[in-house]
Amino acid sequence: MPKLTVENAGQFEIPQGKRLVNALTDEASVDQLHACGGQARCTTCRVQFVAGEPEQMTQAEKEVLTSRGLIGQPGLRLSCQIVCDHDMTLRVISRLAGSGRADAGSAPAEQITPPPVWTTKA
Ligand code: FES
Fold first, then answer.
1. Which residues pair with 84 in a beta bridge?
2. In the 8-state DSSP scheme, what is residue 96?
3. Is-above-0.85 flag for pTM?
4. Which residues have CB under 6 Å of ligand 1?
5. Nearest to residue 79, comparing CAs of 51, 39, 122, 121?
6. pLDDT tens per residue across span 9-68
7. Whose CA is nearest to atom 1 of ligand 1?
């Protein structure tokens, strides 16, 4: 099982292929925001990779990061568009606490939505 290391939270074993946003919530017990419910629209599920940033990126993630001017930020990725299939280390940068929002957002589905079309960041 892949290991997910979250700064200031610990290290967690994640079921192979689990969506990162759901692993943060379920295994790491982080109050990660996911305002659009994992649809690659809001960018509130953003995380900062320290190690193990995936090479692959969904077309949907690339489009929304580009439109928000975030694509050039090293290590910044959308946790709703990533599956846990290798070891990763990241920093949580978008939490419910302090956000002023009423809740973290509706629960993302088990599988990546919209159905992923894979590309790369570059
Ligand atoms: S972009 Fe909204 S939850 Fe990922």
1. 18
2. S
3. yes
4. 34-36, 38-45, 78, 80
5. 39
6. 999 999 999 999 999 999 999 999 999 999 999 999 999 999 999 999 999 999 999 999
7. 40
- 47, 80, 92, 95: residue to mutate for ligand 1 pocket, most atoms within 8 A of CB: 80
d(CA 52, CA 90): 8
**pLDDT tens, 68-80?**
999 999 999 999 9
Dist CA 30 CA 52 (whole Å): 19
Other CB atoms closer than 10 Å to residue 46's CB: what's the count? 20
Q: What is the 3-state secondary structure (H, E, C) of 26-46?
A: HCCCCCECCCCCCCCCCCCCE
Q: Is 72 helix (H, G, I), strand (E, B) or coil?
A: coil
Note the residue count of the chain. 122
The structure tokens listed for 38 are 């994992």
Q: How far is the CA of 8 from the centre of ligand 1 (A)?
A: 22
Confidence of residue 122 (pLDDT cuts 50, 70, 90): confident
